[in-house]
Design brief:
With 370 residues, the protein is an alpha+beta fold. The chain has two domains: 3-114, Phosphorylase Kinase, domain 1, CATH 3.30.200.20; 127-369, Aminoglycoside phosphotransferase (APH), C-terminal lobe (Aminoglycoside 3'-phosphotransferase, Chain: A, domain 2), CATH 3.90.1200. It is built from 13 helices and eleven strands. The protein has helices at 3-7, 57-78, 127-144, 162-173, 176-184, 186-197, 204-210, 251-262, 280-294, 300-304, 306-326, 339-356, 358-369; strands at residues 15-21, 29-36, 41-48, 91-92, 101-102, 108-113, 118-119, 217-219, 228-231, 237-240, 247-249. The strands form three sheets. Strands 1, 2, 3, 4, 5 and 6 form a six-stranded antiparallel β-sheet that branches. It has a three-stranded antiparallel β-sheet with strand order 7-9-10. Helix 3 (127-144) runs parallel beside helix 9. The longest helix is centred in the N-terminal third of the chain and has 22 residues, at 57-78. It is globular and about 60 Å long. Bound molecules: 2-acetamido-2-deoxy-1-O-phosphono-alpha-D-glucopyranose and magnesium ion. 2-acetamido-2-deoxy-1-O-phosphono-alpha-D-glucopyranose binds at residues 25-27, 53, 222, 224, 242, 245, 257, 268, 317.
């Protein structure tokens, strides 16, 4: 079944005009679908959920259903006092009334409304942009802070549990593919050494969780800069998208992931490592935006682990990319074999830059908390 036929399975008025690939996701396949009636046009996002990554796609959709109903209710209730129209995509049902469509291959497809007249930039444009990204995540965390995490499934067991990624990496190292790559590549050996030197880092958040210092809450899971929609007319943040990984976790995963992404102006795919650094001014702006909403729910202990989370999430993503490279690129989509190696180098360079700027970053955090 081709993607046009799939688009026709959803409850949208009019006739299909076009389906085209959209977005730059590393996991799912994303398309933009356009339908027209005699008097208007409807555009929506059509996605094939990656079943290798999400073993239970129906749980992903159930989570999104619960989440979006909760958030839409709150947005309705707060509409008159809000400083803008906040948005969140909603599910477009299939013609059979279900939240997804399963094709002959057993692949899961879903349709979500498009946040129109808004842009998800590939990289951070300036401090105002960073501030808006922080505002959107803080607002989102606030919106989900009263949704019981137990109502949502764990759709991706082990997601952001760094010790688990480390274990998987160490296991991959013993395989023949990894051995062959490491023997033949100086750069890969350098990255392996980088990880080796930072093994203890992997435990910082999970240990705090075990000791009861950090609590499991609902998280977005993937608040990178590309998942923040900026209103084309006002320049303000309007929505966070990509709701696949909304599930129970530590909000530090979100915070760290957002900052490792937003404060790296070069983006995730650059070859020249000289371009990669952690921009403290962008960090300052992001945290200012985040704190306008996060003041309401961040505890003192939460605050104590914010720096660690930034450093950890850069390290973790590098580790995930590198492990996947050594395993033969089975998790993240690649256009060429070295792509996960390129991605890993960027995150490790970023991690080094975060380490080098630790004092400044802590000062920024301190300033924003005071
Ligand atoms: C993946 O598919 P995408 O681009 O939304 C990954 C995130 C990474 C991100 C890095 C489910 O997200 O964890 O941070 O790539 N998502 C999953 O770009 O593994
Ligand atoms: Mg994602």
């Amino acid at each position: 079944m081709n993607v046009n036929e799939v688009a026709n399975q959803f409850a949208v008025a009019g006739k299909l005009v076009m389906v085209q690939p959209a977005g730059t996701g590393n996991v799912n396949d994303t398309y933009l679908a356009i339908f027209r009636t005699t008097f208007n046009e409807e555009r929506f996002i059509l996605q094939r959920i990656n079943r290798r990554v999400f073993q239970r796609p129906e749980w992903v959709m159930l989570n999104i259903r619960i989440l979006t109903e909760h958030v839409h209710n709150r947005l309705e209730a707060e509409r008159d006092t809000a400083d803008r129209i906040w948005q969140l995509p909603r599910i477009i049902e299939g013609k059979d009334g279900r939240d997804f469509y399963i094709d002959e291959q057993g692949d899961f497809w879903r349709a979500m409304t498009l946040i129109a007249s808004a842009t998800a930039h590939e990289t951070t444009q300036n401090s105002e942009h960073a501030l808006e990204c922080g505002t959107v995540l803080g607002h989102f965390h606030n919106l989900i802070s009263d949704l019981d995490p137990n109502r949502l499934h764990d759709t991706l067991p082990g997601f952001h549990i760094t010790p688990g990624y480390l274990g998987k990496y160490l296991e991959t190292l013993t395989g023949s593919n990894a051995e062959r790559i490491l023997n033949g590549s100086l750069e890969s050996r350098r990255l392996a050494r980088f990880i080796e030197q930072r093994r203890n880092l992997a435990y910082c958040l999970e240990r705090a969780k075990e000791q009861g210092m950090l609590k499991t809450r609902l998280i977005h899971g993937d608040p990178k800069v590309t998942n923040i929609m900026i209103d084309a007319f006002t320049g303000k943040g309007t929505s966070i998208i990509d709701l696949d990984t909304v599930k129970p976790g530590l909000i530090h995963y979100d915070f760290g992931d957002a900052l490792r992404s937003t404060c790296n102006p070069a983006g995730e795919e650059v070859e020249n490592l000289n371009d990669v650094y952690f921009d403290v001014d962008l960090c300052d702006a992001y945290i200012k935006g985040y704190m306008t909403h996060a003041r309401l729910f961040l505890t003192d202990t939460d605050r104590a682990f914010l720096f660690d989370s930034i450093r950890l999430l850069a390290f973790e993503l590098g580790l995930r990319f590198f492990q996947d490279y050594l395993a033969g690129n089975v998790y993240f989509k690649v256009r060429y074999p070295e792509q996960n190696l390129i991605r890993a180098r960027v995150q490790f360079k970023l991690c080094e830059s975060i380490e080098a700027r630790e004092r400044q970053i802590r000062a920024v955090l301190q300033g924003a908390m005071g």
